[in-house]
DNA sequence: AATATCGAATGGTTTAACCATTAGCATAGT
DNA sequence: ACTATGCTAATGGTTAAACCATTCGATATT
C-alpha cells in the first residue's frame, strides 16, 4: 500500500531543484550560477554536499564549470553528448556488439536517408556537392584519413537534412561509436574509397530529384556492403 | 596543434581508474568496493573528493551505493538506464517535439517489427498470445489503464524479440518518453482500444508465419494512425 | 603604451568530526 | 527453546573550516 519513503540525499534534492529550474526555463543556457560559497547558503547545505550535486549536474550535461575569478557553474544548452557517452559505455562494456550496431545502422540509415532525400533543398544539394568535391580531392591524393573525416561529415550532414533532432543525434551516436571499429578493422584503399565515392555520387543524384526510395536503397546497400566486409575482416582476424 | 593540457581534477582520475577497471573486467558486476574510508587511502585523496568520484560513477550507472553496515559501492552491470535518462533530458529540454518523436518512431518501429517477425520463435508467439489475451480481458472490462500497460509490455517484448540490444533500448527510450504524451492527449475509448487490439492480432498472425514485411506494414500504419490522432488532438486543443 | 606584478574571487582539496542507517548479535521475556 | 527487543559497530551522508591553485583585472613600472 505505501511506498518506501525515499531516503533523501541532500545533494539529490539540490540536483533536482536546479534541473527543474533548467527544464522550466527559469535558468536559461548561459546563466551563471552563484559561487559555491553562496549556493551552499542558498540551499542551506555544506560546500561538500553542494559540490556532489554539481558533479552530478555536470555529468548530466546541464552545467559546465569554469575556474578562476569570474568562473563558476554555467548552465549549458543540453546536447546529445551525455547520450553518446553513456551509449558508448554500454557498447564498450560488451552489452552491444559490432553486429548489433551494424544491423541497427542499416535500418536507421535507410530511413534517415529516405527522409533527408524527401526534404532536400537546393542549398542542401549544394552543400553535399561541396563535400563530394572535397572527398574527391582526398581520394585523388590518397589521403585516407581526411577522406574518412569527410565521409563522416557527409553522414552527419545528411542527418541534419532530416530536420529531425532524434535522427540527428542517433546518427551521431551510431557513427561516433562505430568509427572505432572502422579505423581498426577496415583499412581504406584506392578501390574501396572509389566505391564509397561512387555510392555518394549516386545518392546525390537521387536526392536532386527527391527520389527518397532510391537514395534509401543505395545507402542501405552501401552500409550493408561495408559492414559485411568489416565483419569478414574481424572473423578472419580472430581465426 | 596541441590540446590544452587537461587540468587534472583528482576525482576525475579516480573515476577513470575505476571505470577502466570495470571495462577491463578487473571489477566484475557484483563486486563490492572497499568502504570510503579505505578507498580514500588507496587513492591517496580525501573523503570529499572520493565521494565526488563516487557520485559521477553512480550517475554513469557503473556503481550502486547501499547504506548501513555491509553497505558500500557495488559494481553494477551496465544497462541502458543512463542512456534512457539522458535522452529523456534532451527531449524534455525542448530539443525534441512530439512530431519529431513520432516520425522517428514510425520508422524505427517498422524496422524493429520486421526484425522481430523474421526472428520470432514459437515461444515468442506464445508469449505474445498470452499478452493478447490479457489485453482482451482489460478491453472487455473497459480497464483502459491496464490495457495501456499491457500494450506497453507488448511493444517492449517485441523489442526483445529482435535479439538486438540497440533496438531494445531505443524502443524502451522512445516509449518511455512518448508515454507522457499518450496519457495526456489520447484518452482511450472502446472503439480506439478495439482498433488497437485488432492491429495486435494481425501482427501476431503475420509473425506466426514470419511474414516480416506484412508485420512491419501493419505496425507502421498503426503507429502512424495513432500519432496522427494525437497530433490532431494537440492542434485542436491549442487553438 | 606596453609590460610586469600583485591581489582578490572562485573552484579544488584536505581534515576531522558528527549524524543516520543498517546488519548482526546479545540479551530478556515468554 | 523461541521470539522480540535493543545495543553495537560498520558504513554512507553531512557539516565545518582551512588552505591551495587558477584566473582576471587593477595597479605599478618601464
Rg calculated over all Cα atoms of chain A: 23 Å
Top CATH class of the largest domain in chain A: Mainly Alpha
**Number of discrete domains of chain A:** 2
Per DSSP E runs of 2 or more residues, the count of β-strands of chain A stands at 2
CATH topology of the largest domain in chain A: Four Helix Bundle (Hemerythrin (Met), subunit A)
What does this structure look like?
By secondary structure, the first copy, chain A, is mainly alpha-helical. Chain A has two domains: 10-75, Arc Repressor Mutant, subunit A (Orthogonal Bundle); 81-238, GntR ligand-binding domain-like (Four Helix Bundle (Hemerythrin (Met), subunit A), Up-down Bundle). Helices cover 73% and strands 3% of the residues of chain A. In chain A, helix 4 crosses helix 8 and helix 5 crosses helix 7 (144-161). The interface between A and B is large, with 45 and 45 residues. Chain A binds a DNA duplex (30 and 30 nucleotides) through residues 7, 9-11, 35-37, 45-49, 51-52, 54, 65-73.
Amino acid at each position: 500500500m505505501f511506498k518506501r519513503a525515499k531516503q533523501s540525499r541532500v545533494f539529490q534534492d539540490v540536483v533536482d531543484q536546479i534541473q527543474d529550474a533548467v527544464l522550466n526555463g527559469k535558468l536559461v543556457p548561459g546563466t551563471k550560477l552563484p559561487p559555491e560559497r553562496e549556493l551552499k547558503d542558498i540551499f542551506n547545505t555544506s560546500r561538500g554536499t553542494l559540490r556532489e550535486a554539481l558533479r552530478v549536474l555536470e555529468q548530466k550535461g546541464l552545467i559546465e564549470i569554469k575556474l578562476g575569478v569570474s568562473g563558476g557553474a554555467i548552465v549549458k544548452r543540453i546536447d546529445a553528448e551525455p547520450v553518446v557517452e553513456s551509449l558508448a559505455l554500454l557498447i564498450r562494456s560488451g552489452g552491444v556488439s559490432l553486429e548489433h550496431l551494424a544491423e541497427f545502422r542499416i535500418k536507421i540509415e535507410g530511413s534517415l536517408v529516405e527522409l533527408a532525400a524527401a526534404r532536400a533543398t537546393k542549398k542542401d544539394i549544394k552543400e553535399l556537392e561541396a563535400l563530394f568535391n572535397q572527398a574527391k580531392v582526398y581520394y585523388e591524393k590518397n589521403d585516407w584519413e581526411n577522406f574518412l573525416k569527410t565521409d563522416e561529415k557527409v553522414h552527419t550532414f545528411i542527418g541534419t537534412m532530416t530536420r529531425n533532432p532524434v535522427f540527428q543525434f542517433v546518427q551521431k551516436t551510431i557513427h561516433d561509436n562505430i568509427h572505432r571499429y572502422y579505423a581498426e578493422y577496415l583499412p581504406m584503399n584506392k578501390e574501396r574509397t572509389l566505391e564509397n565515392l561512387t555510392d555518394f555520387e549516386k545518392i546525390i543524384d537521387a536526392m536532386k530529384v527527391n527520389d527518397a526510395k532510391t537514395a534509401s536503397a543505395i545507402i542501405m546497400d552501401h552500409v550493408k556492403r561495408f559492414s559485411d566486409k568489416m565483419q569478414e575482416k574481424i572473423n578472419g582476424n580472430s581465426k
